[in-house]
Amino acid sequence: MGDKKVIFSGMQPSGALTLGNYLGALKNWVKLQDEYDCYYCVVDMHAITVPKEPKDLRRNTLEVLANYIASGIDPEKSTLFIQSHVSAHAELGWVLNSLSYYGELSRMTQFKDKSKRLDSNSIPAGLFVYPTLMVADILLYQADLVPVGEDQRQHLELTRDLAARFNNRFSETFKVPDAYISSEGAKIMSLQDPQSKMSKSDSNENAYILLVDSHDAIRRKFKRAVTDSMGVVSYNDEQPGVKNLINIYSKISGKTSETIVSEYEGKGYAQFKDDVAEVVFGELKPIQEKINYLLKNKDYLEKIYLLGAEKAEYVARKTLRKVYKKIGFIPR
Ligand code: AMP
Ligand code: TRP
Question: What are the distances in angstroms from CA 7 to CA 11, 123, 128, 146, 220?
Fold first, then answer.
């Protein structure tokens, strides 16, 4: 606290978390806890921008919180909370909607991707303004750094633009944050289509590994992972499937891609895939045990998110009060 730099990040409770979420984001979040004042949020308000069953949302929200803690986020060190518990997010989001432009929001690739799958009469307006809510999340805490995967870079650019725009128009109010994107293996790809990212919303369950997948499921999914016909474990862009498996192996074991390639010289893909599956399961097993334990102890989870919301609310309100005053709202 105090002089430490501030970190904010969040994940949507749109389903169980994947190995992509873990390696691309969570594992880094854990490392940052000692050095920074960290806020880690379960962004349930983002998750309703696409239709979602209420009971699934309730379950997924607690699951994501349990996944955070089981992966090593320590509630004693970091502020863990649920977005909808702190109403300042929605309030600042509204102010930012009035500050952002139709054109810039239309250019967001995530919006373009998600909306192109829908008929124009059924694209929720929430999906369109989702980035401004994300900007509000970050700016409320005056975050210095935002650790995210590569896919969020554009939203972080928007965050910087809107922070600077507000500061210019109304005087210095927000810290302009930086994205914090770890380089190697920042993007874990689908096991079925190594050109697209591993995503929990993929319709093919062989495309992703969930943190809670069984040992058998993990073995099976890696066995079926799409590679190529070259038959050589080598790290290059012509073999995106193999490259992705090497990235996964490397991120978990700490070995470099060169070391891994040399270990598999003269060996086929079958052995390599089995080994990747074992390394992944070895990493996930203790996490799974902890997740199960936490989900059986809902009272403990409740204590954590209540305390987290209280801490977050204090900081968020302070920023929102400043914003309201500067834009000309009359204080109550
Ligand atoms: P989401 O699941 O879209 O809410 O993403 C939560 C966080 O995980 C964000 O920081 C993403 O950038 C990151 N993330 C999601 N999928 C991947 C992936 N396949 N590889 C790396 N990072 C990911
Ligand atoms: N949009 C992010 C995603 O889909 C989730 C998110 C919402 C987020 N608010 C955030 C990430 C604030 C970092 C900071 O992954």
Answer: 14, 32, 25, 6, 37
Residue range 158-196, pLDDT digits in tens: 999 999 999 999 999 999 999 998 765 568 999 999 999
Enter the tokens of residue 47.
Answer: 């998750």
Q: Answer whether 61's CB lies under 8 Å from 17's CB.
A: no
Atom 8 (ligand 1): residue with closest C-alpha? 21
Q: Is the CB of 197 under 6 A from ligand 1?
A: yes
Residues 97, 102: Cα–Cα separation, whole Å: 9
Mean pLDDT of the chain: 95
Mapping DSSP to helix (H, G, I), strand (E, B) and coil, where does residue 167 land? Answer: helix
Give catalytic status of residue 298 as yes or no. Answer: no
Q: Which of 200, 221, 251, 273 is catalytic?
A: 200
3-state class (DSSP) for residue 176: coil
Catalytic residue from among 31, 52, 197, 303 = 197
Catalytic pick from 31, 55, 77, 114? 114
Contact 100, 128 (CB under 8 A): no
Instruction: Give the distance from CA 65 to its chain's centroid.
Output: 12
Structure tokens at 235: 């790290």
Sign of CA dihedral 186, 90, 6, 100: positive
**C-alpha 263 – ligand 2 centre gap (Å):** 37
Q: How far is the CA of 322 from the centre of ligand 1 (A)?
A: 32
Grade residue 120 by pLDDT with cuts at 50, 70 and 90: confident
End-to-end CA distance of the chain: 30
Ligand 1 atom having least distance to the Cα of 26: 8
Residue with the nearest Cα to atom 6 of ligand 2?
Answer: 10
Ligand index nearest the alpha carbon of residue 89: 2
What was the pLDDT predicted at 184? 56
All structural domains of the chain: 6-186+298-327 (3.40.50.620), 205-292 (1.10.240.10)
